[in-house]
Amino acid sequence: MSFKASSLLSGEVDNLRKRSVAESTENCCDPEHHLQFTRLQTQPERLCVGPHHPDLSTLATPSPDGSVHHFCQFTPKCLLAISRGAHGNSPPRQGEEGWHDGTSRTTIRVDNEVEAHREANNYKFGFRKWKGNVTEKPIEDRSDIDKELHTDLSIVKHIAPVVTIGNIVYVFLFGWWISLIYLLICPVMFLTIFGAPYGKVCLKLAWYVIWPFGKSVQRACHLVNISAVKPTNCEIIPQEHEDKDVVGDKDCAPLLVSSPLPIEIPVPLPLPKKTSKHWCRFSTFLWLLLGYPVLAVVHSLACVLSWLPVFSIPIAKMNSRILTTVLLMAPEDIEIHALDKTDVCETRVVLYCYQAFNLYYYKYTVQGINIFALNLLPLVFMTLIVGYTDREHKYFSAETMFTIAITSIIPLSYYIGMGIACISAQSNFAVGAVVNATFGSITEMTFYITALIRGHRAGTKCYEEIVKSALAGTLFGCILFIPGICMTIGGIKHSEQRFNSRSAGVSSALLFVSIGGVFAPTLFSKTFGNLVCESCSNTLGNATVPFICKDCHYDTTTADPHLILSHIEPLVYTISVLLPASYLIGLIFTLKTHAHIYDIHVSDGHGGQPHGHHVVHWSRWRALAVLIVATVLMASCADLCTVNIEPILSHSSISQYFIGVTILAMVPELPEIVNGIQFALQNNISLSLEVGSCIAVQVCMIQIPLLVLFNAFYDVGFALVFSDIHLWASIFSVILVNYIFMDGKCDYFQGTALVVVYFIVLAVYFFAPSPRSC
Question: Which residue range or ranges hold the Inner membrane component domain (predicted)?
């Protein structure tokens, strides 16, 4: 229901607010219902309604007990509320099986069943963590910020200050030259005589576009003085109620607990459109021939230029509405009026814009797709067209092509992640597990395989070393950097964050198993391989003086071939079987036999899940099609990366180790890093830590065994023997992160420590000499 605001007395509003605050501490719910929600860290707003308010009671959820006439409605919100057993503030639960110290009860509040599956999948071991929604949320249920982002600039909601830095920047970037084009077209339309009305329109719009803020474009035939609009038929909410049938004292039943009192003013619906006769005029023909095409190019250019930076999307929306609506109106219908602060009533107009930039547009989505991923999609097609047509590098250098090719992997990785989340949320566990195992590592595998094939055909081991560097870089980057940056950002906002130490312990144990398995052949080669030195010299010429040798390393390639065939290769194949088996055991442990570790409870705030009231962004078949297309495009971009990286490897002064552990390892993981940071900002550090651990475990237990399997069928010379720098960096990272995960809590100091250690490791790689094969 909407409350009429014009005759609501200020004194009564103040009284209502005072009573609301004073009475909010009283218990208006039954004890069990109240205790259930006090466990939540963040409580939703309460609306206590009695039968003596029939208009409001229709909005409330019926009470489970029909005899109770006074109850509380908890407005459902999409949030994660965690009540921790041993670490939380709530009392521990007694007499429940499967409840142990260190576990956490996670109550997931969602809007529909599909979102419930998506959120539950985030807590499943081996599933990719996805922050964004996979269903369309009704606009009325969104936050005010989200509503503002998706406005079409046709409603005047409030009069905000218009003299801002962003608006002034607009004048220098867009306003002056768009206004100049209008001033140039204006005399042309006047010279045609018949087009004079459109000349006047150009003059009006020339002054409008140079500073459109705080001005509204309206139809003259529907023009109403906004300041004169007064809501009628207002209702005053009574302070006292004499109904004796209400259970409990009347003073313990406040209408609204939250403050201030929400007042909703109805927005007038758009009037039905009438067919205009101006399309039959000769002046309209001249306008469409001489003026509109030029302005269409101008506004289209302004739309593109303002859409790509994301934060200036309001400028793009304004230009789009001018192009598609204002310029096609009858000239006599266009009226422009400046609004002042006294115009407070929400009114529908043709166009109203009060800001040129909005920093919250990083949250903007189109059909569920984040705006950054959407804006980077044209870069993918440009990369493929230029990369496969300009093989001689006449227009773009190899370094430039490599840069845009590796950047194109970012949006494709995002689309693959969203496709996996959509299919998993709409399918059962078995299908979700297969999709995550199949496509979860497709981004990295496409690059690794194409690089190994390229190196095999070129007859060089340099590409193999780059692949190993990327594997090691992904491993300790996900162990150190992703948890570290999430702890730092989340700790700055929430001071101290707590997580499920038992689930983190499972991931830590799997990390130890992974590191031990992956680097076992490396340790074996150091034990039984030959110590090879590049150059040895004796400066004194005396045989009794020790030789000085440089660049010594253990090499199995020059060892006894029988040793390699009889011992090293069987060891590698054995590990490639044991690691996936360990991954499968981890799945069974965390999802079946010991699922109580996570103790996930899904609820929508009403005790049941609604069915049939949601619109999925991508259906399962559409998501599958996106996965297949994105995988093909990913393989093409990876191929262009390996083709154009050769000059960088040959002539770069930077160590090839450093290129592998930074650019090739972490760029494809940027969407995962963003997901982890968003989880941390919502005080859900458990998922942030699982993001990095999940990727690291998949690298060791899925990706590396797959590379060994690929090499067994198509010999590209891939040997599971890493350099010493990869060995010690990975082992040190796992030991450090397990030490930090011991107490089940973290803050920004621990996060900063992990990030600093990560950069120290990168500095070691930066100053390290390049691999011998490069």
Answer: 165-215
Q: Are strands 369-370 and 548-555 parallel, antiparallel or unpaired?
A: unpaired
Tell me if residue 110 falls in helix, strand or coil. Answer: coil
Backbone dihedral region of 393: left (phi > 0), alpha (psi from -120 to 50 degrees) or beta? left
Peptide bond into 580 cis (omega under 30): no
Give exposure, 223-255, as e/b (b: 16+ Cβ within 10 Å): eeebeebebeeeeeeeeeeeeeebeeeeeebbb
Check whether 533 has a pLDDT greater than 80.
Answer: no
How many angstroms separate the CA atoms of 276 and 312, rounded?
Answer: 34
Distances (CA, A) of 291 to 196, 287, 288, 333, 334: 12, 5, 6, 18, 16
What's the CA gap between 480 and 470, in Å, rounded? 15
**What is the distance between the alpha carbons of residues 548 and 536, in angstroms, rounded to a whole number?**
5
pLDDT at 27 over 70: no
High-pLDDT (> 70) share of the chain, % = 71
Please tell me whether residue 155 adopts helix, strand or coil conformation: strand
Q: Which two tokens stand for residue 378?
A: 């044209």
What is residue 670's three-state secondary structure? helix
Rounded distance, CA 411 to CA 425, Å? 21
Strands (E), 245-390: 334-338, 347-348, 351-353, 365-366, 369-370
Q: Are β-strands 135-136 and 745-747 bridged in parallel, bridged antiparallel, or unpaired?
A: unpaired
The 8 Å CB, 24+ separation contacts for 374-381 are 374/411, 375/307, 375/308, 375/310, 376/407, 376/408, 376/410, 376/411, 377/411, 379/404, 379/407, 379/408, 379/411, 380/408, 380/411, 380/412, 380/633, 380/637
Predicted pLDDT of residue 553: 65
The predicted structure's pLDDT at residue 739: 85
Beta bridge partners of 81: 107
Rounded to the nearest 10°, the torsion over CA 65, 68, 69, 72 is: -70
- Cα(673)–Cα(379) distance, rounded to whole angstroms? 21
The kind and range of the H/E element at 83 are strand 79-84
Report the candidate in 119, 106, 128, 100 with the shortest Cα–Cα distance to residue 502.
100
**Contact (CB, 8 A) for 131 and 680:** no
Cα–Cα distance measured from residue 198 to residue 233, given in angstroms and rounded to the nearest whole number: 42
Tokens 């906004």, located at residue: 226
DSSP structural state of residue 162: -
Q: Under 8 Å CB-to-CB from 302, ≥6 apart: which residues?
A: 174, 178, 315, 316, 319
Beta strands in 289-386 (DSSP E): 334-338, 347-348, 351-353, 365-366, 369-370
Q: Is the Cβ–Cβ distance between 387 and 94 less than 8 Å? A: no
Q: Tell me how far apart the alpha carbons of residues 666 and 591 are, in angstroms, rounded to a whole number.
A: 29
Q: What SS3 class is residue 338?
A: strand
End-to-end CA distance of the chain: 72
pLDDT at 268 over 60: no
Which tens digit of pLDDT belongs to each residue from 406-448? 999 999 999 998 999 899 888 887 788 788 878 888 888 888 9
What's phi and psi for 655, nearest 5 deg? -60, 135
**For 445-470, what is the mean pLDDT?**
89
Dihedral Cα 421, 425, 427, 428, nearest 10 deg? 110
Q: What tokens does 113 get?
A: 């069943």
**Length of the chain, in residues:** 774
Give 126's DSSP letter.
Answer: T
